[in-house]
Amino acid sequence: MTTSIFSVLFLAIALPSLRISPLLLIRIATIALLYAAALYLSVVYIQSIGSGIGNSSGLFYMPELEINNWLLLSSLLPIKPKRLTAAERSQFTLTDDLKDILVGLILGDLNVKKQTKNSNAILCFEQGFAHKDYLFYLYHKFEIYCSKAPTTANRLPDKRTGNVYTRIYFKTKALPCFNYYYDLFYPKGIKTIPENIADLLTPLGLAIWICDDGKFVASGGLSLCTNSYNDKDISILMDVLTTRFGFICTIHITQTGAKVIHISKKSMDKLRSIVKPHMVPSMLYKIHL
């Protein structure tokens, strides 16, 4: 990497002394800078593999500095996505783990959408920048379905505080393998809990749901933000948590009048034993670890 930097500096010093047109000079300098950036990105990626893999859940992590470098360099090196044919799109499939993760994500914050009624579904991921480690974990799980790396942008000012927060997001290609989940959870275009959710929600899916929508409760329990669901959907989810997983659950009403599912402090040991192996370390605080 040092060699590449010196090469760029050498060009910057030497080229002006040559009789080269300004346009050609700009092109040469641009190519040199892109080459240096691409080489640095490769080094960062290789180092992240050496330092980021290896725990009981098989997750992939990148140190904060490397994530920031990844975001910077991905914005410097835009790549026009290749348009896939219908045959190529049909080749994409989901592993069992990704199916479980997808169920947990849809119960949480994931937005699944179609551009038109007959188009294929797209997965849209977004987190606050404070949760970038979790977002990058998801990106590496779904990377082969994406055309671009995660991007950062500023949200609109918070209505209560006026503060501007940074978000990090990415989306997948529009693919047939996502259509089943769109049809299952969005039968009329609005997110709805399917009747067979007890068959779909696994310990891995539950862990992802908690990472996405779980909220640490100071009294020792955990709340799941079900604000966007109607009473029937909340009842179905309550039944799954109590009968499938054996948790003690109640409905809590927030100050805004929304209903959330509260998992009792008495059930937290059982919850931790189920979901901890599947959770990203930066999210373990949600289960009091």
Summarize the SSE layout with pairings.
Elements: H1 2-14, H2 22-52, H3 64-76, H4 86-90, H5 96-107, E1 111-114, E2 121-128, H6 132-142, E3 151-154, E4 166-171, H7 179-185, H8 197-200, H9 203-213, E5 214-216, E6 222-224, H10 231-244, E7 249-253, E8 259-263, H11 268-275
Antiparallel strand pairs: 1-2, 2-4, 3-4, 5-6, 6-8, 7-8
Helix pairs in contact: 1-2, 2-3, 5-9
Q: Could you describe the 3D structure shown?
A:
The protein is α+β, with helices and mostly antiparallel strands. The protein folds into three domains: 75 residues, no CATH class; 109 residues, Homing endonucleases (Endonuclease I-creI); 95 residues, Endonuclease I-creI, CATH 3.10.28.10. It is 45% helix and 13% strand. The protein is built from eleven helices and eight strands. A four-stranded antiparallel β-sheet has the order 1-2-4-3. Helix 1 runs antiparallel to helix 2, helix 2 packs antiparallel against helix 3 and helix 5 packs parallel to helix 9. The longest helix has 31 residues. The two termini are 39 Å apart.
Sum this structure up briefly:
The chain is α+β, with helices and mostly antiparallel strands and 289 residues long. The protein has helices spanning 2-14, 22-52, 64-76, 86-90, 96-107, 132-142, 179-185, 197-200, 203-213, 231-244, 268-275, and strands spanning 111-114, 121-128, 151-154, 166-171, 214-216, 222-224, 249-253, 259-263.
The whole-number mean of residue pLDDT values reads: 80
Could you tell me the strand content as a percent range? Answer: 5-15%
Structural class: alpha+beta
CATH superfamily of the largest domain: Homing endonucleases
Assembly status: single chain
Q: Show unreliable segments.
A: 2-18, 20-25, 41-62, 72-77
Secondary structure tally: strands: 8
Question: Could you tell me how far the N terminus lies from the C terminus, measured between alpha carbons in angstroms?
Answer: 39 Å
Give the strand order of the largest sheet, numbering strands 1, 2, ... along the chain: 1-2-4-3
Spatial extent as radius of gyration: 23 Å
Named CATH topology of the largest domain: Endonuclease I-creI
The gross shape turns out to be globular
